[in-house]
Amino acid sequence: MPRAADLKEVDIRSRADWRDWLLAHHQQTESIWLVRWKKHTAHHVEHDEIVEEALCWGWIDSAVRKKDDDRSLLLLSPRKPTSAWSAVNKAHVARAEAAGRMQPPGRALIEAAKANGMWNFLDDVERLEVPEDLAAAFTAHPPAAEEWEAFPRSAKRGILEWIKTAKRAETRAKRIAETATLAAKGERANQFR
């Protein structure tokens, strides 16, 4: 797999340009840097439009980098069938379906996610449900639970997803311990420092 710095840049000037690129290239397996023009330029395309089109064709967004004063780069990749679906991306899909924009590649990934459980995998995270093992860790580290409740919704959601997506029990346990220990001090786990 190529390094991020070596990925191709795709410069679009409209939602139609992006859709045309996806129509021609959605089957490729290599990620791209999509050149996003900033709002003050004539070629700006809204982030939600970019993501919605990507999902229609089985792609997903991730990292953002600054290119220059007028442009940024948005990393887009073919979506993996084993990726969990967030409420935000489900809402994008619902809008695309209602507007008749969904395409077979995007639909196929949705059906695969529904079949393998990834469509609903994050539902408890979206509802901010604290799992039992995390609740027990909060109890063991007062005042972690009270501090947790003061965190912004987005921070809690990110931490809960980080815990839930741990692949090994040991990793999950470490993440829970870190979350409770830091929360007791009013600090958030899984943050860039």
Task: Describe the protein in words.
With 193 residues, this protein is α+β, with helices and mostly antiparallel strands. The protein folds into 2 domains: 4-116; 123-184. The protein has helices spanning 15-25, 47-56, 87-98, 104-116, 123-126, 132-140, 144-150, 153-164, 169-184, and strands spanning 9-11, 32-37, 59-66, 71-78. The protein has a 4-stranded mixed beta sheet, covered by helices on one side. Helix 1 links the parallel strand 1 (9-11) and strand 2. The longest helix has 16 residues, at 169-184. Helices cover 49% and strands 13% of the residues. Helix 1 (15-25) runs parallel beside helix 2, helix 6 packs across helix 9 (169-184) and helix 8 (153-164) packs antiparallel against helix 9 (169-184).
Question: How would you summarize this macromolecular structure in one to three sentences?
Answer:
The chain is α+β, with helices and mostly antiparallel strands and 193 residues long.
Shape: globular
Helix percentage: 40-55%
Q: What about the largest sheet? A: 4 strands, mixed
Overall number of domains: 2
Give the count of helical stretches: 9
Separation of the first and last Cα atoms: 28 Å
Question: How much of the residues is beta strand, in percent?
Answer: 5-15%
